[in-house]
Design brief:
356 residues, Peroxidase, domain 1, Peroxidase, domain 2, 16 helices, binds protoporphyrin IX containing FE, metal-binding
Length: 356
């Protein structure tokens, strides 16, 4: 028992060190001499993207969360599959979802490369797009200074994507444990889940919730069943926050208080458990939600970044890919790992060895 407790404490300490220690090397002014334009380029591009499609903001926000939860915020999620190694995009909860976020990050990276070649990482562009998407006027969410200086992973971790990301059927204990493993508190869980104030979910993600849960509002369940039949139509969409789907506000928490959380995992935050009081606070005090959300986004962005000479700043390849390209799969770039592979050596790069 004591040994198990010690092991649990050790996991929390390591996770906290990952989240806080590494984050200390990041700074909001990281590109102030090397690429000051990155801030206006990203903001302008996000503004355009959200005008064309409001869901763009939700898409990049989710990509940021899913990237940070697997090996830290290192853009590993953006790496494409190669014929021999799967990436993270098709693994676990990433599979079958919208690809809007991936394409948008690639487009913005191309614009940043044109202004500042080989300077700004995909991981930092992702962190900036997530913030700008939330804050853009039409969505009306909070803003915060984004610590920068992350570098990009050279390998994905598809196994981690299948195991580390929470699913829509998770219960409260599982959600709290999953966040604790990344150095995030139950309060971070409650605040960050407010991201579901925007964006959509597929019928496959909420079918059991609206057909089987007993803590769902009957009127809400009946309404959702119209869009989501008991079989088929897995890809039919519904807004995660049906009260104010296009506003970055506290409507999500008010929905939970009315038994109208779309996902089972959403409603777990307000189900006579330890987080009920925070849901009530955020649902009745929009400022409390905004400031906690901003603080927790910084903590999320501080999870295990690569800094200094670790990783790389990803570059476009010959076929015009930007953040999706794997250096060792692109022989045009003479990356050391490519050279090792071409030379017939099988040594595993340090980053990969850590993941194994
Ligand atoms: C707490 C555990 C969480 C679970 C179980 C979860 C699960 C899900 C699921 C199942 C979907 C719908 C996917 C689909 O049906 O295609 C979704 C969408 C989304 N999630 Fe989460 N999520 C969680 C936390 C978060 C966090 C922390 C963030 C960001 C900080 C986030 C941002 C989003 C956004 C913005 C969408 C909508 C994406 C879009 O419309 O394209 N989620 N989430």
């Amino acid at each position: 028992m004591a040994r198990r407790l010690l092991a649990a404490v050790a996991i929390v300490v390591v996770a906290a060190a990952l989240a806080c220690g590494a984050g200390a090397q990041l700074s909001a002014g990281f590109y102030s001499s090397s690429c000051p334009a990155v801030h206006s380029i990203v903001r302008q591009a996000m503004s355009q993207a959200v005008t064309n499609n409001t869901r763009s903001a939700a898409a990049v926000l989710r990509v940021f969360f899913h990237d940070c939860f697997v090996n830290g915020c290192d853009a590993s999620l953006l790496l494409d599959d190669t014929p021999t190694t799967p990436g993270e995009k098709g693994a676990g909860p990433n599979a079958g979802g919208s690809t809007v976020g991936f394409d948008l990050i690639d487009t913005i990276k191309a614009q940043v490369e044109a202004a500042c070649p080989a300077t700004v990482s995909c991981a930092d562009i992702l962190a900036l797009t997530a913030r700008d998407g939330v804050n853009l006027v039409s969505l009306g969410g909070p803003s915060w200074a984004v610590p920068l200086g992350r570098r990009d992973a050279t390998f994905p971790n598809s196994t981690g994507a299948a195991t580390d990301l929470p699913g829509p059927d998770s219960d409260l204990a599982g959600l709290v444990a999953g966040f604790a493993a990344k150095g995030l508190s139950p309060r971070d869980l409650a605040a960050l889940s407010g991201a579901h104030t925007v964006g959509m979910a597929r019928c496959a993600s909420f079918r059991t919730r609206v057909y089987c849960d007993d803590n769902v509002s009957p009127a809400f369940a009946a309404q959702q069943r119209q869009a989501c039949p008991s079989a088929d139509a897995d890809d039919a969409l519904a807004p995660l926050d049906s009260l104010t789907p296009d506003q970055f506000d506290n409507g999500y928490y008010r929905s939970l208080m009315a038994g109208a959380g779309l996902l089972h995992s959403d409603q777990e935050l307000f189900s006579n458990g330890a987080l009920d009081s925070l849901v009530r606070l955020y649902g009745t005090n929009a400022d409390a939600f905004s400031s906690d959300f901003a603080a927790s986004m910084v903590k999320l962005g501080n999870i295990g970044p690569l800094t200094g000479s670790a990783g790389e700043t990803r570059r476009p390849n010959r076929s015009g890919q930007h953040c999706g390209v794997r250096p060792w799969a692109d022989h045009s770039r003479h990356h050391p790992v490519t050279v090792r592979i071409l030379a017939g050596k099988t040594s595993v790069p340090a980053r990969r060895a850590r993941q194994a």
